[in-house]
Amino acid sequence: MLRKMTYFLASLWCLILSACSGNEPGPLAGTWRMGGLIPMTVEFRPGETETLGIIEKVSYEVQGNVVFVTYTDGFAKGMTMRYTMTGKNTVQTELGNLQRVQ
Predict the structure, then answer these.
(1) Which end of the chain is less enclosed by CB atoms within 10 A, N or C?
(2) What are residue 22's DSSP bridge partners?
């Protein structure tokens, strides 16, 4: 019985981890606007982002109120950006704050 419980818990843990990362942007899904010196619009879609008309392949990892976006292709390949959800429609990044457009 203990062995079955161990397998069950291990399987549950794997399921939880796989749900936390992948191609879905989670709370970042949609279009966001960044103000400041260089205003821009960023769209987060499954498996990709679009900024200034440039589409880049990415993977997402959601950890609580933080979404890590790792670029898997192009110039920024291997770079990870941290997006901290500060509200339903606001996000804080190293580059500035974002407001939800859609």
Answers:
(1) N
(2) 60
- 41-65: pLDDT as tens digits: 999 999 999 999 999 999 999 999 9
Task: Return the pLDDT at 32.
Answer: 97
Question: Does the residue 75 lie in any domain?
Answer: yes
Question: How far is it, in rounded angstroms, from Cα 27 to Cα 62?
Answer: 9
Let me know: does 71 contact 58? Beta carbons within 8 Å. Answer: yes
Pick from 45, 5, 40, 8: nearest CA to 25: 45
Range of the domain at 72: 22-100
Spell out the residues 6+ positions from residue 10 whose beta carbon is closer than 8 angstroms to its own: none
How many distinct structural domains can be found in the chain?
A: 1
